[in-house]
Amino acid sequence: MINTTKSGISLSLLMGDAVVLRQAIAARMSKMDAVDTESIDEDALAELYEDRDALQRLQDYIQHEFAEAFGTPPPEADASYENDLK
């Protein structure tokens, strides 16, 4: 189980929960990466980049904590399952 006591929100995640969360983050990042950056204004683009960076940090953190908690890196996170939901 992943458990953190750092300042901020504390989450305890089972292995499967961590994998699902990483998949959801990857799906959101994939949608962000597909945005036509020429079609949005500078403020929206800056917010998009900030949100994308925050998601990447969260993805990296979960990956690190997963390896620490379970002794193995998590499965590769991608947005491939998203097509199954349509």
Would you kindly provide a brief summary of this structure?
With 86 residues, this protein is mainly alpha-helical. It is built from two helices and two strands.
Give the topology, please:
Layout: E1 2-3, E2 12-13, H1 15-33, H2 42-70
Antiparallel strand pairs: 1-2
Helix pairs in contact: 1-2
Structure description:
- It is built from 2 helices and 2 strands; from the N terminus they run ββαα.
- It is mainly α.
- It has a domain of 51 residues.
- A two-stranded antiparallel ribbon has the order 1-2.
- A hairpin with an 8-residue loop joins strand 1 and strand 2.
- The longest helix is centred in the middle third of the chain and has 29 residues.
- The N and C termini lie far apart (31 Å).
Assembly status: single chain
SSE-based structural type: mainly alpha
Adjacency order of strands in the biggest sheet: 1-2
**What fraction of residues sit in β-strands?**
under 5%
Envelope shape: elongated
Q: Helicity range of the residues?
A: 55-70%
Low-confidence blocks of residues: none
Mean pLDDT: 87
Largest sheet: 2 strands, antiparallel
Number of strands: 2
The SSE string, one letter per element, is EEHH
* Total DSSP helices: 2
Distance between the termini: 31 Å
> Radius of gyration, rounded?
15 Å
